[in-house]
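quick one, 82 residues, struct below
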Amino acid sequence: MGRTSAQGRTNDVRVHRTKAGLTQAELAASCGVARQTVVAVEAGDYAPSVYLALDLARHLATTVEDLFDGQHAPLTTPGGPS
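---
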């Protein structure tokens, strides 16, 4: 199976992961993928499968649409300004 490119696409996986207080490794482990997969998704270098997108959304307590709609959410940290 080849790698699916998402080049030129933006997403908010990093924003939601940071808000959830998770590291890339923790999110990857909870989704059953390598940390490098999360890195590639966050960078927009890899388009996740539908199943991985749903799993990411579930572990980040959000929706696939919120993660991948192309409109960036503001970056805030837990306990920080909103």
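The mean pLDDT is 86.
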